[in-house]
Amino acid sequence: MNIKQDQLKFLLIMFILFIHILCWTAPDEVPITVQRLSNHVINLQVGDVAPFGDIICNNVVAVASSEGLIIIDTGYYPQSAKSLRKIISHEFGRNDFAWVINTHWHWDHINGNQAFSDIPIMGHENIIPALQQFEKGLGAFIRQREERMQDWQKQLQLWVRFQGRTNSQRMGFCS
């Protein structure tokens, strides 16, 4: 590999590490941006733009209906879900939360559900079996992520050791 390929590989590894860390350990204060779509609908963008220009966020939609506030998806930061609730109440001037609707089972859509545990949470009938299947394989999923992290750390250490060396210097370094 040449230096440009090494640099790209390093950036890719760092980006993957960043995503992994961000998804498992969110900051205490996650930025939330409110966009009013109509008098009855707001979009809450939870998260922000990452250093490499990639968007590390998702959207939560709140709808003010005659029967109460309806929340569509609750985001992937459990600690921001309480803030979402306060913001939604403030934006609509009411706090009669009626339902949460999960569009699908992915963690980035349901991790904030616990902040809405006092109201009905609904979604497609396949959400619960999908979560149960995911839970069965959760141990293997975590082990796989840990192994990948170890591999990434080794690759990063090697990249740092070889940074700036020519191919012939690298070959001599390995012997």
Description:
The chain is α/β, with parallel strands linked by helices and 175 residues long. Residues 169-175 have low confidence and may be disordered. The chain is elongated and about 65 Å long. The protein has helices at 3-24, 78-92, 107-110, 127-136, 138-162, 167-174; strands at residues 32-36, 41-49, 55-65, 68-72, 97-102, 121-123. The two termini are 18 Å apart. It folds into two domains: 1-27 and 137-175; 31-125, Metallo-beta-lactamase, Chain A (4-Layer Sandwich), CATH 3.60.15. Strand 3 and strand 4 form a beta hairpin. Helix 1 runs antiparallel to helix 5. Strands 1-2-3-4-5-6 form a six-stranded mixed sheet. The chain contains six helices and six strands. The longest helix has 25 residues, at 138-162.
Question: Which helices and strands occur, and which strands form pairs?
Answer:
Blueprint: H1 3-24, E1 32-36, E2 41-49, E3 55-65, E4 68-72, H2 78-92, E5 97-102, H3 107-110, E6 121-123, H4 127-136, H5 138-162, H6 167-174
Parallel strand pairs: 4-5, 5-6
Antiparallel strand pairs: 1-2, 2-3, 3-4
Shape: elongated
Stretches where pLDDT is under 50 for at least 5 consecutive residues are 169-175
User: Strand order of the main beta sheet, please?
Assistant: 1-2-3-4-5-6
Helix content: 40-55%
Please state the CA-atom Rg, rounded to the nearest Å: 22 Å
Average predicted confidence as pLDDT: 77
Query: What would CATH call the class of the largest domain?
Result: Alpha Beta
Tally of discrete structural domains: 2
Query: What is the assigned CATH homologous superfamily of the largest domain?
Result: Ribonuclease Z/Hydroxyacylglutathione hydrolase-like
CATH fold-level assignment of the largest domain: Metallo-beta-lactamase, Chain A
The beta-strand count equals: 6
Query: In whole angstroms, how far apart are the ends?
Result: 18 Å
CATH architecture of the largest domain: 4-Layer Sandwich
Based on secondary structure, the structural category is alpha/beta
H and E string: HEEEEHEHEHHH
- Give the helix tally: 6
What fraction strand? 15-25%
Biggest sheet: strands, sense, closure? 6 strands, mixed
